[in-house]
Give the backbone structure.
Amino acid sequence: MRSDKNIRLIAYWRGGGDVIPTDLQDHLIERFRREMVGLQLNSTQDNERTAEIKVFPQHLPRPEKQKRSSELSPEQFEANQQFPSITVRLHYGGGRDPHDFKTARVNFIVGVYDAEDNHQGYRDAMTIAKRIEESLVKSPIVDDLYTCSPEIEWAYYDEEVQPFFFLGLETDWQIPEYIRDDEVEAMI
């Protein structure tokens, strides 16, 4: 069984450099790239369910300057590079007690494209969000260092931005704190 002491020692022996929020972010990106394989959503090219979900760190990337097909408008070409997607965004973190875990808030921003007139793209966004939530509840520990709180909240962005639909998940994580070298001996 994992204990706070063991987690802090693992973090110490790794040299401390790995216990940073961007390491958690990298692990989450890789995890959800693997877990979303095979889930296909509407493509911006033909609105058929052929688009694989992309996972990005922090922000959507700037669309690449490539030659676009004459069949796509500039907006469709840019959206095709970015949607459907999950953006893993570090929001904030901290902690007051130097002998306790620090916390980090990580948001997952789900964005999908659906040009159908019935405006049902929110359903695809919710499907992705629920897959993320289920994964984190069933397996909340990442890299033996980071633990997701089971209290996961979601919110739908309900502004009129069709054919794009967005939904966000808020997650809180325990992150081990660095320990001073002179405290290591007392823990062993």
